[in-house]
Amino acid sequence: MNIIETKIKGLLILEPRVFGDERGWFMESFNQKNFEQALVERGLEVPHFVQDNHSYSQKGVLRGLHYQLNPYAQGKLVRVVQGRAWDVAVDIRQESPTFGQWVGVELTGENHKQFWIPAGFAHGFIALEDNTQFLYKTTNYYHKESEGAIIWNDPRIGIEWPIDEMDEVLVSTKDQIASKLEDSKLF
């Protein structure tokens, strides 16, 4: 597995080894021992996963920017198994030197990349193709009373979503009325 460190400490892009031939391909999508070793080598906390989630989206569906507050904060290991998505994590740890900064990565069913997003980050993505299937491994259970959302197009954050004014963006009512970063309850 190849580990790519991003500009924000703790956010990692994982590229599993894929073995392919004329029959198709095989990859180890998760290995606890290797994942732990990669985190320990970088001085990062090792999580314990408790829940897997799976979403299905059509092109233009934008989900996020979501998070849960302590003590129900979630780390997420995410990947796309079909289709394409632009995935984003925003640092919402108020004492962090990278507070309000974001990292984005394209995840596809073909590039097999995974994105590790520890607790303390808001997370969102936009589906770039129809029939995009997105998988999440989470370190805590969903807890409705602890959930938060930051508006996806907050100018303070300035995420460079891969869309233009001709693209139709489909956002849930809940995400349309999400708070700006400065008005959100954070870490």
Give the helix/strand layout:
Layout: E1 2-5, E2 12-15, E3 18-21, E4 24-27, H1 32-41, E5 51-57, E6 61-68, E7 76-82, E8 84-91, E9 102-108, E10 114-117, E11 121-127, E12 132-138, E13 147-149, E14 170-171, H2 173-176
Parallel strand pairs: 6-14
Antiparallel strand pairs: 1-2, 2-10, 3-4, 5-12, 6-11, 6-13, 7-10, 7-12, 8-9, 8-11
Walk me through this protein's architecture.
The protein is mainly beta and 187 residues long. It has a single domain (2-18, 26-183), classed as Sandwich (Jelly Rolls), CATH 2.60.120.10. The chain has two helices and 14 strands. The strands form three sheets. Strands 1-2-10-7-12-5 form a six-stranded antiparallel beta sheet, with no helix packed on it. Strands 6, 8, 9, 11, 13 and 14 form a six-stranded mixed beta sheet that branches. The chain is globular. The two termini are 31 Å apart.
Q: How many distinct folded domains?
A: 1
Give the helix/strand class. Answer: mainly beta
Query: Which strand order spans the largest sheet, edge to edge or round the barrel?
Result: 1-2-10-7-12-5
Assigned CATH class = Mainly Beta
Determine the number of helices (DSSP H or I, runs of at least 4 residues): 2
- Please indicate the percent range of residues in DSSP E strands (runs of 2 or more): 35-45%
In CATH, the homologous superfamily goes by the name: Jelly Rolls
Radius of gyration using CA atoms only? 16 Å
Helix content: under 10%
Largest sheet: 6 strands, antiparallel
Shape summary? globular
Task: Give the uncertain stretches in residue-range form.
Answer: none
CATH architecture verdict: Sandwich
Q: How many angstroms does the end-to-end distance come to?
A: 31 Å
Taken in chain order, the helices and strands follow as: EEEEHEEEEEEEEEEH
List how many beta strands DSSP finds.
14
Kindly report the average pLDDT value: 95
> In CATH terms, what is the fold-level topology?
Jelly Rolls
Keywords: Isomerase
Catalytic activity: dTDP-4-dehydro-6-deoxy-alpha-D-glucose = dTDP-4-dehydro-beta-L-rhamnose
Organism: Acinetobacter corruptisaponis
Pathway: Carbohydrate biosynthesis; dTDP-L-rhamnose biosynthesis
